[in-house]
Write a structure and sequence with these properties.
725 residues, alpha+beta, Ubiquitin-like (UB roll), ten-stranded mixed β-sheet, six-stranded mixed β-sheet, 46% helix, Gln_synth/guanido_kin_cat_dom
Length: 725
């Protein structure tokens, strides 16, 4: 394989890679280090006065209001623990509407009069901070000249130590709100939605005769990502600026052999995984599963279930950790939903359930779900929620980057439907007509080899084309993108579940007050719910053309793009839902819509400018150089009296003409962006003008890459980035 000097040097540097020293010390086990850098319940129990500890635990486990009197004791214990861990600073960590993590660091040590320094960390400092809020997205909630914003301690998400060779930092998860109390972050709405859902879930459990402890939602996000050598990454301005390749011809081999999926993990990648898991274990993040994903260079990690708020915080911390550790191993971790055209994109499937300490997982059907009325009620609540607010769920995962993935025969379609599987579909089909009397049971798998055991089979298969699929004891929302925070989708799921459970609890309470026997009321309600909302249940192939037609007949929305989906945030039904359950005010809901439009436009504009720059300064010059070589060759042959084949020169010349025309059209489209009247018009222009213009430039450039002499091509190619690792 030949290459131009820049590409050749990158390949040489990859081959010279030396792995870092092993991260695990001899004799060290994951159990020894798990949670060692977390201000956990165990640490608090050892360091806090008993009364303070009980108060804090009551808030964490039972959702009781935090007693402000405990803050000083917790702050003092937290400071001492952090300093013992080598921390010199503390940081309120928050999650602004950029989708990334933000933090403001302050030192523990203040100078005193005798020339020394004293470590200080008061309760009021723990509880509240004041970062500048003027430069974060706010969607019109505040004027840009108004800078005051507050962070507030979230006691339900544990503080932790972030290690750095130059000094450690105590990190305190917080909410981020404006001076007027409006949410400027992802955490605050998630906590509000979780609380609203819990209120009505507990009403339902009370009707079933329980005295329920606090109900919480759980999530387990499956993070997909790509790894490429960092030398290739820094040689690709498109990856540096936008996170995805804006140019790149299809390699001779892609993923068509399915040989990468669950294959042997490359040694270098396995070293990276071991390092990341060690860091995650220290932070109390329960990493569980790791494997090769479908595309070459693509991998996945999945943690165990956690409470949704903690899981969302941990997911953000995981992404930061992956980026840091990848660079230690000379690689770059790519979270963009579609970094490489033509191969599988990356999602972040969010597994959702809800439960509590007394009743356990409320979405566990048992062996005979037709007899499990409580499970059926909570499952029916999910069906109602997804049917009524499918558009809102789609909006919760809408972004310019996720548009490259959704509905592309690798991720769920933009139509939000529910897969139940054979067993539950059969039960709910019975409920639509009356009482359910049977459930499909487990089977056995006969392999035909005497030395192998008989394997039990589940009563239903899985459906990888469904956006919201039941998978045995939880629902898997497969539409979230790999780059986004799971807090947004989890906020929406909790919000729509609050409405569904409120509806169910009210219906049952009313029926009982009117003298209906409880079991009879439950039966009638289940029949009503599946009759009214069963059209959202679909167990077939979500990728088929037939489903597009059938879904329309069922009245299910097909919101193909971000601009189709974002208006769902501000429909009357959505705003009423948010306001009724205290999740967003009307202005907060509109702010999310405005920020969505703004982020969509900005993302595409960055890509458009990168396409223009790379097309003009790298791709076009490479084509012209090759054209010159060919023309020189033709001239030399004619001078020597030899017939010259003009086909290749004419082909390259035609491609260059197409490229020049595409670049010119893209430049005009970029300039026209400035005349847009408002955010929606600007976003619409990005979708209708910039994206097609970029595609035209890329088409010509990719044809040129497949034609130009390899030693002249300036950008690392797909086969190099995806296979040299």
């Amino acid at each position: 394989m030949s290459a131009n000097p820049v590409r050749l040097q990158a390949i040489t540097d990859v081959e010279a890679y030396v792995p870092p020293a092993p991260s695990f010390s001899p004799g060290e086990t994951p159990g020894d280090i798990f949670g060692m850098n977390v201000f956990s319940k165990t640490v608090m129990q050892k360091r806090l006065p008993k009364s303070v500890y009980k108060s804090v635990i009551a808030t964490i486990e039972n959702s009781e209001m935090l007693d402000p009197m405990v803050a000083d004791s917790v702050a003092s214990a937290m400071k001492d623990w952090a300093i013992e861990k080598g921390a010199t600073h503390y940081a309120h960590v928050f999650y602004p509407l950029t989708g990334f993590t933000a933090e403001k660091h302050d030192g523990f040590f203040d100078p005193v009069g005798d020339g020394t320094a004293l470590a200080e960390f008061a309760g009021k400092t723990l509880v509240q901070g004041e970062p500048d809020a003027s430069s974060f997205p706010n969607g019109g909630l505040r004027n840009t000249f108004e800078a005051r914003g507050y962070t507030g301690w979230d006691v339900t998400s544990p503080a932790y130590i972030l290690e750095n060779p130059n000094g450690n930092t105590l990190c305190i998860p917080t909410v981020f709100i404006s001076m007027t109390g409006e949410a400027l972050d992802h955490k605050t709405p998630l906590l509000r939605a979780q609380q609203a859902m819990a209120v009505h879930a507990e009403r339902v459990l009370t009707l079933f005769g329980h005295t329920p402890s606090a109900v919480v939602s759980y999530c387990g996000p499956e993070q997909e990502y790509f790894l490429i050598d960092r030398h290739f990454f820094v040689a690709r301005p498109d990856l540096l600026n936008s996170g995805r390749t804006l140019f790149g011809a299809k390699p001779p081999k892609g993923q068509e052999f399915d040989d990468h999926y669950f294959g042997a993990i490359p040694e270098r990648v396995l070293g990276f995984m071991a390092d990341t898991e060690r860091e995650l274990f220290k932070l109390g993040i329960p990493a569980k599963t790791r494997h090769n994903e479908v595309a070459p260079g693509q991998f996945e990690i999945a943690p165990m279930f956690e409470a949704a708020n903690v899981g969302a915080d941990h997911q953000q911390l995981l992404m930061t950790t992956f980026k840091t550790v990848a660079r230690k191993h000379g690689m770059e971790c790519l979270f963009h939903e579609k970094p490489f055209e033509g191969v599988n994109g990356s999602g972040k499937h969010v597994n959702f359930s809800l439960g509590n300490a007394t009743e356990g997982n409320l979405l566990l059907p048992g062996d005979t779900p037709h007899d499990n009325a409580q499970f059926l009620v909570f499952c029916a609540a999910v069906i109602r929620a997804v049917h009524q607010y499918g558009g809102l769920l789609r909006a919760s995962v809408a972004s310019a980057s996720n548009d490259h993935r959704l509905g592309a025969n690798e991720a769920p379609p933009a139509i939000i439907s529910i897969f139940l599987g054979d067993q539950l579909a059969g039960v709910f089909e019975q409920l639509a007509k009356g009482p359910a009397t049977s459930s499909k049971g487990r089977g056995t798998l006969q392999i035909g080899v005497d030395t192998l055991p008989v394997l039990p089979t589940d009563p239903g298969d899985r459906n990888r084309t469904s956006p919201f699929a039941f998978t045995g004891n939880r629902f898997e929302f497969r539409a979230p993108g790999s780059l986004q925070s799971v807090a947004g989708p989890m906020t929406t799921i909790n919000a729509i579940m609050a409405e569904a459970l409120d509806h169910i609890a009210t219906k049952l309470e009313t029926a009982i007050e009117l003298g209906t026997e409880f079991n009879e009321a439950v039966q009638a309600l289940l029949t009503e719910l599946i009759t009214d909302h069963g059209s959202v249940v679909f167990n077939g192939n979500g990728y088929s053309d037939e489903w597009q037609v059938e879904a329309a007949e069922r009245g299910l929305p097909n919101l193909r793009t971000t601009l189709d989906a974002l208006p769902e945030l501000i429909t009357d039904a959505s705003v009423q839902l948010f306001e009724r359950y205290g999740i967003f005010t009307e202005s907060e809901a509109h702010s999310r819509y405005e920020i969505g439009l703004e982020h969509y436009t900005q993302s595409i504009m960055v890509e458009a400018l990168s396409t223009l720059e790379i097309g003009q300064t790298s791709v076009l010059p490479a084509g012209v150089r090759y054209q010159t070589e060919l023309a020189t060759n033709v001239t030399a042959l004619k001078t020597a009296g030899i017939d010259a084949d003009m086909d290749l020169l004419e082909e390259v010349t035609a491609i260059i003409a197409d490229l020049r025309a595409g670049i010119g059209a893209l430049r005009i489209a970029i300039e026209a962006s400035h005349s847009a009247e408002d955010a929606l018009a600007e976003a619409t222009h990005a979708q209708s003008a910039l994206l097609p213009a970029m595609a035209t430039v890329r088409a010509a450039a990719d044809r040129l890459e497949s034609t130009v002499a390899d030693d002249l091509w300036p950008l690392p190619t797909y086969q190099e980035m995806l296979y040299i690792l």
